[in-house]
Each structure stands twice: as structure tokens, then as C-alpha cells.
Design a protein that fits this description.
Layout (H helix, E strand, L loop, with lengths): L6 H21 L6 H8 L3 H7 L3 H26 L3 H18 L1 H9 L6 H25 L9 H12 L14 H14 L12 H9 L9
Length: about 220
Amino acid sequence: MARVRSAAFDDQRETILAQAAALFARQGYTATSMNEVAAACGISKPTLYHYVRDKHELLLSVAEAHVARLEALVAAVAVEQLAPRARLQALVSRFVLAYADAQHEHRVLTEDVKFLDAEARERVLAGERRVVAAFADAVHALRPELAEAALAKPLAMLLFGMINWMFTWLKPGGRYDHAAMAPVVVDLFLGGLGAVQAPGPQSASAAARRSTMTTKKETLL
């Protein structure tokens, strides 16, 4: 009979994945050692190997866990059975907000998956393809007349082109945060530049981060 993992085990593993993602995002996968991951988690290296076999498995776990969370968002929106426009709006808004809380994991997904072996990389990419397919289906539901031109997936990819790289320019402490920009992305994608409305006052989270900053950071917004 397979051993049932304890809640403490799962909590510790989540901590390890979060710390590893932060290190990979800051200094790169290849430049990060397992000693550094263990130190960041406050555990010994032998203890770290109790949770993951090696650094490759650690990278795979970070990437798969992030994609699984995104797939869960897609599933949650599907359960709501929204009208086509509301469904696409919900998907875009929730993904932008999810990226705000998982910027390290998202950077790892976009920059470090290439270091996985072919089989592991395909597992991650398969999950990403399912997410893209869900967005393409939402686009098709809203604009079914575009089916003959097979534009649903290209339009979904253009949308991801807008939101996937926000972490490279939307800086902590800037004028806007992800919560403020989510409706802007929705407006721009669904209505074009003429439909964009200026965000209201910055969110409380952005204001709090700005007020606690002790050093000046370069921002692009």
C-alpha cells in the first residue's frame, strides 16, 4: 500500500518549490545550486533530497505546479458557464492576477523549461497547450465567424503575447500593478485601443508596496 503523505510534507514541499522558483528567477536555473535551495528553505541538503530527487526534478515540479494552477483557473471559469464575452474576460483577468502572485514561477516557465529533458519538457508543454486551447475555444465562442479563417488559436497566442511578458516591464512599486492592468488588457484585446479606459487609483496593494519601499527602483510605468 502506498504511503499517504502528511500535510506537513506537502507544506514543506510547497515551500521548497517556492524558494527554488525565486532562486531560479533571480539568478537562473543553471547558476543555482541545491545547496542554495536548501539554505533558502532552512533545511539541510540531505533533507532537501527527501522531497526531490535532483535539481532537474525540482525544475520540473516548479513548472508543472504552475501550469496545474493555470489549468485549475481554466476549469474554475468553465464551471461558471459564463456567456462568451464574460468567459473570455474572466480568463484574461484571472490569468493576469494569477501571474501577479506567481511571478517567479512564471519566469521559470518562460525561461528555464528549455533545460528539462525532452520527456519532461513535453509534459509541461502539453499542459500549456491545453491552456492555450481553452483560450482559443473562448475566442471561437465569442467570434465563431472566424472559424473558417482558423484565427482562434493565433488570436489566443497574440493575447498571451500581451500578458506572458508583463513581468519584464511591470515593476514592483510602479504606478500600476497587475490588478490595475487586468481590465486594460481585457479592453485592449476585446475592443482595441479605442476601448481602453484609464485605470482608477492604484490598488491598495500597489500603494502599500510603494509606501514601504526604502530604495528607488526603476519603473517603466
